[in-house]
Automatic annotation (TrEMBL):
This is Calcium permeable stress-gated cation channel 1. It comes from the Eukaryota. One of its GO terms (molecular function) is calcium-activated cation channel activity. Residues 532-580 are annotated as: Disordered. Residues 14-173 form the CSC1/OSCA1-like cytosolic domain.
Amino acid sequence: MHLIPNLQNSFVQVIVRNVPSDPDESVLELVEHFFLVNHPNHFLGFQAVYDANKLSKLVDEKKKMHNWLDYYQLKYVRDPSKRPTLKTGFLGLLGNRVDAIDFYTSNIERLAKEISVEREVIANDTKYVMPAAFVSFKTRWAAAVCAQTQQTRNPTIWLTEWAPEPRDVYWENLAIPYVALAVRKLISGVAFFFLTFFFMIPIALVQSLANIEGIERAVPFLKPLIETRFIKSFIQGFLPGIALKIFLIFLPSILMLMSKFEGFISQSALERRSATRFYIFQFVNVFLGSIITGTAFQQLNSFVHQSANDIPKIIGTSIPMKATFFITYIMVDGWAGVAGEILRLKPMIIYHLKNFFTVKTEKDREEAMDPGSISFNAGEPQIQLYFLLGLVYAVVTPILLPFIIVFFGLAYVVFRHQIINVYNQEYESAAAFWPDVHMRIIVALVVSQLLLMGLLSTKEAAQSTPLLVALPVLTIWFHFFCKGRYEPAFVRYPLQEAMMKDTLERVREPNLNLKGYLREAYLHPIFKAGDDDSETDEASEVEMVQKPELVPTKRHSRRHTPMSSIGSDAPLLNQPAPDL
């Protein structure tokens, strides 16, 4: 079965970005006329992308005010003899004391007016319309042609790609201008480089903890305590792994913030980029950093005074010396991490903290108990790091393999249970992670083969080393073979299969109202009706925002729209959907 990229619910939906500006037409009119001319028989309609970030903040603030109002009203119901009060200053500690119910009621009314005004401004002001849109087509075949082809001679405008499924869209980044994306990508890449480079400093400090002699030289007065059998075993065994794990706790969140700043428009793309950087970070700092700073870094004089030909031998010698550290790291990070996953200690602690400090109503409690989704950006790179360690040490120090096998066995059982019974599925990416996973497996194979050659050169087996050169060559060739044979299934949709599914669908569901389904599929969540009854008029405002009345044309230049395409039979968004 072919894997369709992000097409579980958006099989006829394409996102177009970098719509060029035009002096004669608005973005809404320009998008409509462009696709009427270039896809006249297949264009169904489109939904514009609006800069609703300010509106989203107002709605979130209103929900918080509603939550506080519910809390104080409940408090007043329990004790009607006393009206609840609060101070309006900093953290409720300063300012004038006012009636809490009246205070939040007035703030909610104020925010409701601001939200109404902001919606009207977004609906009527063209500056809030972003140069992007979700374009719908009548068939999968037409959507596949549009998403996988260049639309104009200028390859920097009218950029089309498969739209993420509606749950997968990261709406905050849709308002970022396309030109700013390149700048953001550069800034994010530079920041990641410096983050990776300067993190070597705490890694070196962590690895120095495993060196008893170094500690005794730095703090000689602690020598009697350090020489105690239990303390010495703890320092050399578990302390480095625990300290390294503490340093890495907040890293996935930092990398996710960097990915959001970079401007990706889907949750799956954010997690894929964060996972890639987390794996690179762990490969450089945890794997290579632990080897180099832990042993070879201590032999810096050897690097300086010896020839370059001896450097692989030094690294090859240092790899077996770090097997003990990686065994303890797998136990601390892997085994303990899997145990913590099944016990859910961290979510339980966070829930009780929220329950004590922030939970005021039953709605707050339900939100605090939400398990969320599995963190692919943190879990998947961790598993692949252990896969790398297993490949490297399978020949060097086989005693490490049982620890990795136990980890993978426990991880399979635990995460299978958690995915089925605990976590929520926030989106469907159609196996978009697999090309990245395959690439990292190939990298792990090549690295293990190169390090094996370095190790054999130190074991009086230098004559066999040239024979091993064929291993990385064949592995890289296999990677390119798989990339050419299987990767297209993850990024392109075969036209033959699209036509076959379109034909079957016309037979099975001849009266499918595709436009009715797609009308609100890519509606910004902020325009949808809220949970509270005070937002009953949102539907009509959404109708106005999402389905503007478009005239056939206002153009005078007609540079893109010939006269033959302008007529009363143009498939406008507010017309009924044709039968497929």
